[in-house]
Amino acid sequence: MLRGNHPATVDGKFRFKVPTTFRNFIRETYGDELFLTSFSGENLLAYPLAEWSRMESRLQQIPSMNPARQKLLSRVNYYGAMTTMDAHGRVLVPQLLRDSGKLEGEVVVMGQLTHLEVWNHDVFRSRLESSPLTDAALTPLADLGI
Description:
This protein has helices at residues 20-29, 49-60, 67-79, 95-101, 121-130, 135-143, and strands spanning 5-10, 15-17, 33-37, 44-48, 81-84, 90-92, 105-111, 116-120. By secondary structure, it is of the alpha+beta class. The strands form two sheets. Strands 1-7-8-4-3-5 form a six-stranded antiparallel β-sheet. A two-stranded antiparallel ribbon has the order 2-6.
């Protein structure tokens, strides 16, 4: 499982180094291929290719004319790019995601169980502060037994 937050930096060549704990798990479990994308352009989602393939398999079960499916695929393909971690675990951040997500300098790299989420550090902190975790927000999870 990919869990926790490991700060990183996008370097001058527009790469971020996948933190060691994440990198080791991804390499041992999935290999080096990643699909980079975003649903909103505000962040980068880094899926090990096998996990993204599972997502695509689920999406294929939905009729192709379904508006939600079309909208999601349009976004993930617009922002999407295949990549491979280099020997040091570095990943090039595509220009479109660099610009839309302000992914430069300090970033947070967070595990989301099956993939990584990368945010500009200041943008993410601002989102946390402006949208606190309330009991009302947790109620749907409690209803699911979490």
